[in-house]
Design brief:
160 residues; alpha/beta; 10-stranded mixed beta sheet; two-stranded antiparallel sheet; 4 helices; 12 strands
Length: 160
Amino acid sequence: MPIISTPDLCDQAGDSVQILAPILKNFGAKPAFGGRIVTIKCFEDNSLVKEQGQVDGEQQVRVVDGGASPRRALLGDQIALALAEHHWAGIVIYGYVRDVDALADTELGIQAIGAIPVKTEKRGVGDLNVPVTFGGVTFRPGEWLYADNNGVVVSPVALI
């Protein structure tokens, strides 16, 4: 994929894109990433995130709506490594991560609200490929997401 610049994409696309409120920061080794959206909706349970980490990502982007809960980390080093090994471009989490030093060395784009050291309980609860909304944006499976240090842009069509 070519170099991603969300400011350039916004200039190019104008009002046809959605811009996520500035609520996330980068944690992965890839500060810029993009691809087709695949969603998960879960709350303090990353069972589905872990399970889907074993699926080939083909340069897609996982969007996880964790309800912004600061009590549990939805991503840690092992799941991030699995996502990278299965060719995911990145993961955007409306929630928290852990193992931040290891995440910084993982060849994966990772954006989340922040970090907390507590792992989730595994209850097998969550929804896959449903529209999720946070930060003023609705993320629909099959649409396109582009992220860098400037922000997150969502488009109904590929921009790159």
